[in-house]
Design a protein that fits this description.
Layout lengths: L2 H43 L13
């Protein structure tokens, strides 16, 4: 393999690696946003007084 081909191959590998890192960063940002939304949804769905009173008949 000559130097020009080796340089092109290395450049292609670097670009592919950079793209993978960029996609991973984007997906992490998306997961953080979805996680925050999920947390807010779970907090708002919880009934704070649930289980404090028990009704029973004798």
């Amino acid at each position: 393999m000559d130097i020009a081909s080796l340089s092109i191959a290395q450049s292609t590998i670097n670009v592919a690696s950079d793209v993978q890192v960029a996609v991973l960063g984007k997906s992490l940002d998306t997961m953080e946003t979805l996680g925050d939304g999920m947390k807010k949804m779970l907090e708002s769905s919880v009934t704070p007084h649930l289980g404090q009173n028990i009704d029973y008949l004798v």
